[in-house]
Amino acid sequence: MQLNANLEWLYGHLPLDQRFAAAAADGFAGAEMLQPYEQPPAWYADALKAHGLTAVLHNTPIRPDSPGRLGWAAIPGGQAEFRECFDRARAVAEATGSRRIHVMAGDCRGHDERACRQALDQNLAWALRHAESDDLVLMLEPLNRADMPGYFYWLPEQALDVIRAFDSPRLRLQFDLYHCVKEGLDLAQELERCRGFIGHVQLAGAPDRHEPDLSRDGLFATVAALPAAGYDSWLGCEYKPRSTAAEGLIWADPLRQQGMIR
């Protein structure tokens, strides 16, 4: 496995054009981009290439001051907005080579749950047709209720229910250990539940979302068990450093010493 940098979380204090260089200087080979829409897609492709970074994942666009503040996929009546946003995400994928798109479901407070699920199913069915033609994998990520109140799913089992219904290798779980811990879940149990469905893994330290402490919450054992559970790819560093990203990376030393990450 290999660590990748979330450019916004680790380097959000820097101007956009400096984040790529900072990630490369800190030894990262891959990058997640939450909202790569401030510049044209080719700009992000050039920035990644200039610093030898692989595009690992990006999110579909959000609109903070609208019903789509956390995405549109599960918002009833938001089909047109979802398709527009998904097409923008596809353009970034085409330019950068990123193969994973996190499909943001949305803040569903005030909407009927069944209507939200129907909207999500319809939008994913449409998006999966494009994922097949574009060689993409779509990610569903549960977000904990303390940080993201109203998000359509907050437990892995809820997202897995959607994933299993489609039974497509193009739809996978974004397994974020931080969100699981914030929901009070047992990581070993959740990993077993999610076996075979994980398409990307992210981690941070709970409760404050700083560097992970591998001695807490079963983090070390969970990361160690990922390959046996069918996942041996990127580990997304999605946290706010206590000081600098470079200084904080000491948290990963035990993983390197055990040969778990390259």
TrEMBL record:
Family named by the database record: Belongs to the hyi family.
InterPro entries per the UniProt record, alphabetical: HyI-like (IPR026040), Sugar_Epim/Isomerase (IPR050417), Xyl_isomerase-like_sf (IPR036237), Xyl_isomerase-like_TIM-brl (IPR013022)
Coiled-coil features, chain-numbered ranges: none
Xylose isomerase-like TIM barrel domain sequence ranges: 20-251
Protein name from the UniProt record: Hydroxypyruvate isomerase
GO BP: glyoxylate metabolic process
Listed GO MF terms: hydroxypyruvate isomerase activity
Keywords linked to the UniProt accession: Isomerase, Pyruvate
Biological source species: Pseudacidovorax intermedius
Claim: Transmembrane helix is one of the keywords in the record: no
UniProt-annotated catalytic positions: 141, 238
